[in-house]
């Protein structure tokens, strides 16, 4: 039995004992209560009774803890001493800034705008940190936490193709309904829990550390959903779905009749007017308690606008939420009532876009309620509840910042930025609480705001005027600079809370470059004869009208080309083995140094054969060819969604103007430390073995990363 | 005040008359639910609900903190300390509704005690009528006049040290009677209940002030200038039987009130 399991069993046993004792005491109190001869009871306040109960339970626990404290403390002291005996430090803090760019950081440091990072560079270490192939957040962070190449952790993109249906699936987790269902009439009552299977392989470094007795607090590290059991605390990050099971579907409610649409990431719901109120609903998950699971649950609400005050009152779920124009509401608790009295709880924020002439209301994707999680989002389960009780409700969705709402014009830049900072403030509160609790051990927190804001505001950077995307918003030019300054302040505050002998690492998973032009890999494959459409058909999303019997390769996601392989794809045409190898080589050679005729720039710098680029048992699941785009280029939006367009190259006119899904050599991340790290090559895969090494824990042989030479 | 008390008596008498067909426990349950609803509404209207919710969440968080970070001694000790502070804060927030509630619940409780606290005397069984007088000499010549249906089963006992005379009486038939204590030309009455079912059963009639009127509702106080201080009927306690347990009304009432409050707090949107 592992230490984690023993610890868990011990905690459960203790809790059970306390509950049992409390129950016995309560029953005894009830039975043995003497006759009351004075007027006490409800008259003396049953409100006091509730508080008494709380006090009583707390006291019971306190007494229990007090009595057993010496024994537990002795045991823990011995364990801790053993855990930290070989450690170079007792505390490591890792701040992860998704997408923090080394060139930009360097520039701002030179301009004197980032004093804390400048101090770290001067006294400790600043290096570019080699990212993964491809340089995409779920891939890079998976390598960060496991210390292995993607061939061993099995994450190659946000999505992976379903080889039978040629449709995308989430690469990090698979969520299925309950295995056993009791059908009664139109109801289907699940008898077991939904199946949530993690698809990321290999073991995170915190499992090794926890087994050695080192406390680990892990906050919002990507690809940690579903949370895995270990002896520490963890809040899942990127890849946590919303209540609908998607990666973020917002809703937009309007009195305008011209907008009526529904896409994978948004639902537009028109208001219906009844008297002074405008009625609408928040779309929820499918009602899985019905045999017809296509029925979608709704959370209805009504809005009473007050045009003169430029605000509106939203009546939802028994609450009245007042929102002013151009402002976000607090988190609003929603309840989606399913059949047979069951309900699913979620939270969302409203943003009142306008009251007049049209009433327009944006609602964020419905996040999983952290206090009543429909799916597990933390380990232990109580950790998400603890954080919500301590600091208030918070965004739980993996990609919480709604980039699509800005991209599609449903939110303005200011509104998007405000949303990002609201989420960031929540994250900061969580991080500083974890830092406070982790007096010894490892505290890791990943901040996503750096990635999202750079994606959406890169076009405003002073030296990047080439983007075709619209430049709107007031003072948007300094948004990225302000962002870096705020992160620097955060680093400063973190350093203030750390002793000099603690190790601080600041890392990012990749850098950033402009995304000016898109390359439609599917169009290129079509033009080159590798991908065929049905006669006379135009292509749609997700390979609609692709003739698979004549298709040899297709592209899905941001960097990958897949062979239509026999025995793997349901309608495969390419023989595995020599033919597949030949085709991979052919594609690599043809795509390498592909030039954009409109700009005469190299759109694709390098290509990679997966069989040569990766090692490990999951290499077979990788895209067969990985494309390393040149600076300014990326897979086009249509290409990522499996759509064939007439042209291979297209201008990126969306607000999403910065990206990193290119040649990994162009977008390394950053590595800062308050300790000196020597050596030339530093990669994100080295972080996990380095941490194990610092704590004197043996580095597993399967890890690809190498521990850094590091000293205070 | 006497008018108010009289009005309250009438309201409760009417309520109990309405519920006469119900079993005693069911009537108690009705009052429990009523108490819960009133209490929830008062708590909702008179307390800072947001503050209560906040402090409750904080308390919950610190309880969880102890479980989540058991190895961190500093964290655990601080959590206990904060938990204690939050409990005091919670009590502070609960103080205003508690004070507001104490007034109506005092009247309610007195009425419930009058109806559920004591059982009627059983026909065919003896019970004591005890009169306490102002001075040791006062009882001289005191006569207990009994209506038909009640008989004195033993001579009266005079206990001078207690200024008290006790009569042993027996009800021959079920019914509600008025007994009269005659002393020096003055007459003091006391009601005796000897029939089954829920009825107002007040054991003491005192010459006390307002407080006595509140806690012993149903009968007017004895005259302040009179020689008799108190007339008491020794009713047996009313008990509720649950298998082999015998419990007084307070226990099921409290339990039912708490259960009802917990069940209804969501519907009434009250944070407790």
CATH architecture of the largest domain in chain A: 3-Layer(aba) Sandwich
Kindly report how far apart the N and C termini of chain A lie: 36 Å
β content of chain A, as a range? 25-35%
Assign a percent range to the helix content of chain B: 40-55%
List keywords for this structure.
heterodimer; A: 712 residues; 4 domains; 5-stranded mixed beta sheet; 38 strands; 26% strand; globular; B: 272 residues; alpha+beta; 2 domains; 5-stranded antiparallel beta sheet; 6 helices; 46% helix
How would you describe this protein?
- The complex is a heterodimer of chains A (712) and B (272).
- With 712 residues, chain A is of the alpha+beta class.
- Chain A folds into 4 domains: 13-26 and 63-85, no CATH class; 91-155 and 200-241 and 375-512 and 667-712, Alkaline Phosphatase, subunit A, CATH 3.40.720.10; 246-370, no CATH class; 519-661, no CATH class.
- Helices cover 30% and strands 26% of the residues of chain A.
- Chain A has an 8-stranded mixed beta sheet with strand order 2-36-26-1-25-9-10-24, with helices on both faces. A 5-stranded mixed beta sheet of chain A has the order 12-13-11-22-21, with no helix packed on it. Chain A has a 5-stranded antiparallel beta sheet with strand order 14-15-16-17-18, with no helix packed on it.
- In chain A, strand 19 and strand 20 (343-348) form a beta hairpin.
- Chain A is globular and about 80 Å long.
- Chain B has 272 residues and is an alpha+beta fold.
- Chain B folds into 2 domains: 2-117 and 247-264, no CATH class; 126-233, Immunoglobulin-like, CATH 2.60.40.
- Chain B is 46% helix and 22% strand.
- Chain B has 6 helices and 10 strands.
- Chain B has helices at residues 2-18, 24-46, 49-68, 73-116, 210-215, 250-264, and strands spanning 126-133, 143-145, 150-159, 164-171, 176-183, 186-193, 204-206, 228-233, 240-242, 245-247.
- The longest helix of chain B has 44 residues, at 73-116.
- Chains A and B meet through helix 1, helix 2 and helix 8 of A and helix 2, helix 3, helix 4 and helix 6 of B.
């Amino acid at each position: 039995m592992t230490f984690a399991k023993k610890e868990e069993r011990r905690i459960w046993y203790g809790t059970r004992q306390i509950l049992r004792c409390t129950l016995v005491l309560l029953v005894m109190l009830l039975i043995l209560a003497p006759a009351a001869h004075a007027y006490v009871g409800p008259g003396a306040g049953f409100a006091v009774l509730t508080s008494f109960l709380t006090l009583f339970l707390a006291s019971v626990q306190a007494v229990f803890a007090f009595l057993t404290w010496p024994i537990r403390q002795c045991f823990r002291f011995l364990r801790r001493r053993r855990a930290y005996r070989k450690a170079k430090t007792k505390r490591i803090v890792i701040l992860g800034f998704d997408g923090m760019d080394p060139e930009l950081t360097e520039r701002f440091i030179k301009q004197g705008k980032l004093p804390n990072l400048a101090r770290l560079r001067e006294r400790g270490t600043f290096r570019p940190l080699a990212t993964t192939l491809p340089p995409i957040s779920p891939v890079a962070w998976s390598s960060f936490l496991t210390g292995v190449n993607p061939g061993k952790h099995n994450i190659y993109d946000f999505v992976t193709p379903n080889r039978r249906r040629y449709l995308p699936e989430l690469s990090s987790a698979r969520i299925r309904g309950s295995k056993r269902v009791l059908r009664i009439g139109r109801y289907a009552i699940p008898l077991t829990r939904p199946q949530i299977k993690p698809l990321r392989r290999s073991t995170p470094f915190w499992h090794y550390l926890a087994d050695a007795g080192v406390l680990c607090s892990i906050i919002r590290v990507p690809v940690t959903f579903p949370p895995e059991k270990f002896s520490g605390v963890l809040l899942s990050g990127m890849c946590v779905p919303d209540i609908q099971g998607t990666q973020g579907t917002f809703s937009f409610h309007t009195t305008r009749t011209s907008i009526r649409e529904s896409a994978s990431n948004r639902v537009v719901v028109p208001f219906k007017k009844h008297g002074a109120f405008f009625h609408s609903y928040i779309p929820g998950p499918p009602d899985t308690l019905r045999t017809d699971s296509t029925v979608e649950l709704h959370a209805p609400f009504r809005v009473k606008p007050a045009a003169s005050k430029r605000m509106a009152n939203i009546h939802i779920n028994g609450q009245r939420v007042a929102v002013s124009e151009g402002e976000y509401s607090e988190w609003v608790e929603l309840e989606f009532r399913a059949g047979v009295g069951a309900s699913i709880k979620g939270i969302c924020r409203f943003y009142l876009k306008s009251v007049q002439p049209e009433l327009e209301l944006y609602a964020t994707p419905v996040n999983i309620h952290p206090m009543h999680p429909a799916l597990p989002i933390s380990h232990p389960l109580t950790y998400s509840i603890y954080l919500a009780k301590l600091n208030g409700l918070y965004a739980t969705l993996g990609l919480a910042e709604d980039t699509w709402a800005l991209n599609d014009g449903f939110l303005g830049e200011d509104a998007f930025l405000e949303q990002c900072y609201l989420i960031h403030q929540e994250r900061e509160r969580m991080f500083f609480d974890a830092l406070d609790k982790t007096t010894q051990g490892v505290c890791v927190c990943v901040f996503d705001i750096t990635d999202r804001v750079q994606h959406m505001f890169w076009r405003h950077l002073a030296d990047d005027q080439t983007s075709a995307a619209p430049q709107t918003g007031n003072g948007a030019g300094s948004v990225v600079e302000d962002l870096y300054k705020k992160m620097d302040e955060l680093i400063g505050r973190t350093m203030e809370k750390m002793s000099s002998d603690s190790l601080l690492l600041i890392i990012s998973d990749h850098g950033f470059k402009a995304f000016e032009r898109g390359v439609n890999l599917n169009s290129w494959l079509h033009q080159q004869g590798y991908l065929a459409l049905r006669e006379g058909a135009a292509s749609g999303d997700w390979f609609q009208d692709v003739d698979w019997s004549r298709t040899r390769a297709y592209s899905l996601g941001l960097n990958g080309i897949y062979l239509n392989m026999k025995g793997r794809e349901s309608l495969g045409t390419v023989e595995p083995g020599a033919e597949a190898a030949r085709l991979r080589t052919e594609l690599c050679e043809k795509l390498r140094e592909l030039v954009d005729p409109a700009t005469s720039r190299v759109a694709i710098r390098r290509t990679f054969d997966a069989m040569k680029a990766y090692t490990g048992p999951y290499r077979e699941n990788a895209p067969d060819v990985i494309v390393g785009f040149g600076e300014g280029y990326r897979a086009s939006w249509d290409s990522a969604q499996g759509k064939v367009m007439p042209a291979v190259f297209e201008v990126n006119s969306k607000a999403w103007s910065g990206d990193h899904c290119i040649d990994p050599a162009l977008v390394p991340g950053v590595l800062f430390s308050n300790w000196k790290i020597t050596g030339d090559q530093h990669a994100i895969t080295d972080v996990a073995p380095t941490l194990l090494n610092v704590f004197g824990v043996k580095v597993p042989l399967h890890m690809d990363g190498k521990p850094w030479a590091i000293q205070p | 005040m006497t008018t108010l008390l009289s009005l309250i008596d009438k309201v409760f008498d009417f309520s109990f008359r309405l519920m006469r067909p119900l079993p005693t426990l069911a009537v108690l349950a009705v009052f429990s639910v009523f108490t819960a609803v009133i209490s929830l509404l008062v708590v909702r209207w008179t307390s800072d609900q947001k503050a209560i919710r906040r402090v409750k969440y904080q308390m919950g968080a610190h309880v969880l903190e102890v479980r989540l970070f058991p190895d961190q001694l500093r964290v655990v000790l601080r959590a206990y300390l904060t938990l204690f502070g939050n409990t005091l804060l919670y009590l502070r927030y609960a103080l205003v509704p508690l004070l507001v509630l104490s007034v109506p619940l005092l009247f309610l409780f007195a009425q419930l005690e009058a109806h559920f606290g004591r059982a009627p005397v059983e026909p065919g069984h003896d019970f004591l009528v005890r009169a306490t007088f102002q001075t040791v000499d006062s009882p001289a010549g005191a006569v207990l006049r009994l209506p038909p249906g009640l008989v004195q089963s033993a001579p009266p006992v005079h206990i001078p040290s207690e200024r008290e005379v006790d009569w042993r009486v027996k009800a021959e038939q079920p019914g509600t009677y008025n007994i009269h204590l005659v002393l020096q030309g003055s007459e003091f009455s006391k009601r005796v209940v000897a029939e089954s079912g829920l009825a107002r059963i007040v054991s003491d009639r005192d010459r006390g002030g307002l407080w006595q009127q509140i806690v012993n509702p149903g009968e007017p106080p004895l005259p302040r200038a009179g020689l008799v201080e108190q007339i008491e009927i020794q009713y047996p306690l009313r008990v509720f039987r649950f298998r082999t347990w015998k419990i007084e009304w307070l226990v099921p009432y409290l339990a039912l009130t708490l259960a009802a409050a917990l069940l209804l707090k969501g519907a009434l949107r009250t944070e407790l």
